[in-house]
Amino acid sequence: MTNTYNTLNPLGSVSAKDLSDNASDFDEAMNSPAPSFYDRFMRRRETWAGMEKQVSDFLEAMGFEATHLQYVDGTPLTVLRPTQLIDRAGSVYKVKQPASFPVNLTGTWATDQLLLVDVSDAALRSELADAVSLANGATMVGRATPQIKSLAELKTYQGRYSKDCVLMMGRDTATPGRGDQHFWWDAASTATPNDFDIVQVTGVPTGRWIAFGREIIRASDWGMYGDGTDITSKYAAMMAYVALLGNIGKHATIVLGAGNYVKSSCPNHAYRGLVLHPEGEVTYTNTGSGPNMLIDFGALSGMKGDGVYIGSPNNPITFRGGASTGDGIYVRAFVGNGGICANVHGCGTSARAFRSEWSVLIDYWLNITPGDLSTGSLAWYSGGVPAVGVSLGERLTGEQSAYNQFWNLKANGCNVGIFLESTLGNNFWGGDSEFSIAIGLLATVNALKDKLWGMNFEVNPTDISCNANGIRFIGCDALSFVFGATSVNCKMLGCLTDAITVVLGSVGTHIADTSFSRGLSSTVIVDAGTETRHSNNYNMTTNKFQNAPKVVLTPTVSFPGGVFTWINTTGDTVLVQGTGGTISNVSVGTGLDIATIPYPMNRIAVLNGEPISFSGSGSLVFKAWRGV
Question: Which among 435, 450, 501, 442 has a CA at the least distance from the CA of 467?
């Protein structure tokens, strides 16, 4: 078709002639079978049919065939040309080059697929979405991070390149998210594997998976989930890794998921900076004969360490052991800083719930009681009644457990609640020691200058037996205080009690601002000690301030007029009084003379070892008293 007018008017013309030619050109372009036409400016243009022919020629030149062959399993198929494509199971294939045509396919896919190559994306998409095979999925994409389901699977997967990264979703397939960790591939490494932060692929001698950032350790990383199964070997392996970190100056934090961790032995936790951090309620159950928790920095002089923290005040760890197990918690040479927050609900009957041999400046939050609130039990675990609740002693001579702080200590239901064996300057801030089988608190002669503030000692056969040096009871409650024959310079200040006994041999006991006879059954303070001082004590039976009663140290002696001398050998300062007759002179010590003391004679203090002499006429009566 040709243009009728060919005015050659410029674009934008509204001439009717040009509009007619334009309509003619459009009709030609869309409907003509000819390959081209000329527009109203006399330029050659391709028709739609012409463009279809060009595309078809191009595809033919490229070997494109619109009709595919259909592969039917069990039916032979002949491929005549390299350009022929074959459809099977949603994928498109062509014959693998080089090849001699025609190619005869047998119809057996296992054999024929070796001669073909997939040219569609269906298989690729399937492989990329594959969540099972380690050869597929993210593994097929460079710099992507494959997801590994377990440690066992990681041991089958070699890194694609050096510094390749993977994410292990969990140590065990059954526990995804517990023990998850990123690893990177060190292609040149031959480091000793430990299946924790260094993993070797089975059968691959060179190359290791190395974990990222392993100073924070989760018990689940080592296959420990607090599910009540025995973890002895796994726990030992974990602590061996902690030791390796310590050797290179790194500090480990062990995160414990809630649960019950059962083991028959306890590795040493004496690593500076070690933290045991529980997430939820964590219990250690001891089935062996040793301690349930061991922090031992050494037995030799000069060896010591610090910086270990077990639990936290708002989330203590519970330790349980049966009657034949060892100590609940044992620390030695633990000096400087650190802390233990723990419940002990059972240990060996010959053992101690908490035992310290030279710990210094450590904070303790200890709850040593029968019964575990998590189980509702009201008895010691498996009959594990501690011989001693809290025992403070020394490592070597002079290495006392000293200057520790015990916060709200509870040591109840033990044979002996608190045993101060070799101590110096420890502070006990509140708490109690009750329902003991024998004694609430036993302080030996080697307990020095400890202070107990506001503690409660009741419902024990003997509440407090103190043979210490310089111990202070401040604001404490007990039914009975006994200051033994070796106690020296001990003080009882602002306490509340029923009975107070100062045994013969005790020296320098000071009892002040104390209310006694609280049970309304005892009305006296029994004092046979040396140099005891009493002040402002209140008898709750008589409702009067009352100190220790006067005690006669020597029998009443009568003698005729003249001179009578007595030497104080009681070991105490006593008050001497002479009555009856006429006393003309009294001489005390080496030079003090008191002449013509009227009857009755005032009491005169006589120090231990000093003499006192009377002179006068008539029959005199002489008495010496301890007390005020």
Answer: 442
The number of domains in the chain is 5
**Residue 139 domain-assigned?**
no
Q: What tokens appear for 350 in the block? A: 């010959």
What are the tens digits of pLDDT across the range 328-349? 999 999 999 999 999 999 999 9
Query: Which DSSP string corresponds to 88-109?
Result: ETTEEEEEPSS-PSSEEE-S-H
pLDDT, position 596: 40
Which domain range does residue 470 map to?
A: 387-541
For 403, the token pair is 């200057």
Distance (Å) of CA 363 to CA 118, 273, 441? 71, 15, 20
Q: Where would I find the H helices in 295-446?
A: none
**Based on the domain organization, do 373 and 407 belong to the same domain?**
no
- 438 and 348 belong to one structural domain: no
Helices (H), 223-277: 232-247
Tens of pLDDT, residue by residue over 353-400, are: 999 999 999 999 999 999 876 667 789 999 999 999 999 999 999 999
Domain end among 541, 574, 595 = 541
Q: Is residue 562 part of a domain?
A: yes
- Give me the phi and psi of 150, to 5 degrees please: -160, 170
Other Cβ atoms less than 10 A from the Cβ of 122: the count is 12
Q: Is the pTM of this model over 0.70?
A: no
